[in-house]
Amino acid sequence: MNPMPELAPMLKQLRLSGLLEALPARNRQAIEEHLAYTDFLALLIQDEIARREQKRLSQRLRRANFRSHKTLEQFDFAFNPGINRALIQELATGQFLTEPASVLIAGPSGTGKSHLAQALGQIAACQGQDVRFMTQTQLLGALNEARATGTFQRRFQALARVALLIIDDFGLKPLRSPQDEDVHDLISERYEQRATIVTSNLDFSEWGDAFPNRLLGAATLDRLRHNAYRVVLDGASYRSPKPLPEPPHSPLANSAKTAEQ
């Protein structure tokens, strides 16, 4: 007798319909290996826990809104050997999330800042942390849109409370009022409460130049830099253009050169 038709509605009622996928294979395994009922039940429960965790991870990655799937394993440390690999491996443990502390990543365009930030974000998501990845432009655009629709406080608090906020390309465009106030308020709200990763093409000494109000900028950066981990990515760009191919050999041009001689 096949118990599946009878089990299906009961498992759905208990919100355990995911067990239906693993049940046939586990049932065969139990018969072939003569498993005890408790061992068979334990395997099914393990399958359900793994399925739910994978579903939650997929949801966290979708909410994070990463540009692409970037991992630390894909990061080419040999390309720019000056990178502090030991520090990055330490950050990969997730300790900065529990402190909590900021991670500031600076370097020229194309040196892997966004890749590294997203890779650390991927690790945080796998560790069960909620993550948001946004460029400075996206962040300010979202807050401006929320202000226009009367949902600013709700949007602001969502960004303030997320376990890890990644702000990419900070300072790429100068801030204007009230953008500088929004950035200040957000960093202040997260200060010593939540971890933040910020990437920028600017040297650390130039970050204050992004703020039209220097006093406000100094107050913001003072909080951001306090106990922060600093990563400098310097060297060649991963986006260096490929060399142009040699022009094709032209018999006509050679003939003309011979005629001139």
TrEMBL record:
Residues in AAA+ ATPase domain copies: 99-234
Classification via Pfam families: IstB_IS21
Biological processes per GO annotation: DNA replication
Region annotated Disordered, chain positions: 237-261
UniProt cross-references to InterPro entries, sorted A to Z: AAA+_ATPase, DNAC/IstB-like, IstB, IstB_ATP-bd, P-loop_NTPase
Keywords associated with the record: ATP-binding, Nucleotide-binding
GO MF, any single term: ATP binding
Gene3D superfamilies xrefs: P-loop containing nucleotide triphosphate hydrolases
Entry-linked SMART domains: AAA
UniProt xrefs under NCBIfam families: IS21_help_AAA (NF038214)
Family: Belongs to the IS21/IS1162 putative ATP-binding protein family.
Protein name: ATP-binding protein
Originating species: Lamprobacter modestohalophilus
